[in-house]
Amino acid sequence: MKDYQGEYIDKGYLNYPMESPLVCYIPIGYFYGIHGEFKVTKYASTNPMRYFYETVKVEANIEEVFSEEPITVSDPFLDAALKAEFGGAYCERDLSQIQSVQIYYYRTTHGQFSSEPSITFAYYDKRLGAYDNATSVYRYSDFFDEDWTRDFPEETLLDMQYFPLLEMVKFRQSRSASTPSEVPLPDGYLECILVKAYTADDFSE
Of 124, 114, 4, which Cα lies nearest the Cα of 56? Predict the structure, then answer.
């Protein structure tokens, strides 16, 4: 696409093509949410209040980026939730649509305010998921009859490597419903599993 420069006149904008194109790098996760269409702000003059928008359509072949080969994660609870979410088998392309994962391995209690392990998936595309804010939630009792009485499973941390475009993860465990605690993470763990935050330096020649 090309950017424009121009001037503001009484009846609208008078635009002049720039000599060189403007190159934009769009994160794939962002592409999911906007379905290839995004707005570019263009200024008609040096006055920052004089601007307008132009819609730009971007195409991407997701099939060439993420594999359709079936995946099986190690955590039985996470595996069951993913199978329920995607109707059986799931693959890297399916998991690339998920923006964040929250996994709470709360130990169940038998009091008035009992809780149980849960998994929440949030999507880039706000039209996906079981709820209006594009999230899906699964409870441990959706798949298993017994209570969870162990520590946070280590294999769950390793399973996050299968989600190629994660922007946020949250892991919690507790011995009671009233005292949840963050799961201690290995050094450098988040940098390994979360999507890289690119800067202009990554694309400089």
Answer: 4
User: Hey, what amino acid is at 63?
Assistant: E
CA 56: distance to chain centroid? 22
pTM of the model: 0.78
| Encoded tokens for 204 | 């400089």
- Residues in Cβ contact with 3 at an 8 Å cutoff, skipping those fewer than 6 apart: 18, 21, 22, 40, 42
| Number of C-beta neighbours around residue 201 at 10 A | 6
pLDDT in tens, 123-182: 998 888 888 889 999 999 999 998 888 889 999 999 999 999 999 999 998 765 566 788
At residue 146's C-alpha, the angle toward residues 144 and 149, to 5°, is: 115
**What pLDDT digit, counting tens, does each position of 196-205 carry?**
776 667 666 5
In one-letter notation, the amino acid at residue 86 is: F
